[in-house]
Every structure is written in C-alpha cells, then in structure tokens.
Specification:
Layout lengths: L7 E4 L10 E9 L5 E7 L2 E7 L3 E3 L2 H9 L1
Antiparallel strand pairs: 1-2, 1-5, 2-3, 3-4
Protein name: DUF1918 domain-containing protein
Length: 69
C-alpha cells in the first residue's frame, strides 16, 4: 500500500523514538531505483526516510479520539 501526502499513518520502527505513534505523511520521495520513502510529521518532530514497510494506515477511530482530547 502506498501513501500520499496528508495521509494519517502509524510508524512501526522499534529503533525510532516515534515507534507506535500516529503521524501525517508530509513528503514522499522516490529513489532512482523506484523505492519510495516518506517523511512523517508527528506532534513532537518528524522522521525522514521511512520505508513503506514501516507504515500502516491509521484507524479512522483513532483520529476521532485524538480530536476529543
């Protein structure tokens, strides 16, 4: 599954300080080999060069819960 800018995603990277957090895709980059990586913005910063395998689409319910806080 590929992602577009402004998509809400969950980062799954145990080596990242943002592991398990929901963020927003702020940029997509394609290498000359056709691999796509993403920049994901979080409340406390951003993670760059994130491969598609480390992302999953955020649940719509999760977005609603964050709006209530």
């Amino acid at each position: 599954m590929s992602f577009e800018e402004d998509d809400r995603v969950v980062l799954n990277d145990e080596h990242s300080e943002f592991d398990g957090q929901t963020g927003t895709v702020s940029q997509t980059m394609e290498s000359m080999f056709g691999d796509v990586t993403y920049t994901v913005s979080f409340e406390d910063g951003q993670e760059t060069g994130v491969p598609e395998d480390d992302l999953e689409a955020a649940d719509e319910d999760e977005d609603a819960d964050e709006d209530e806080e």
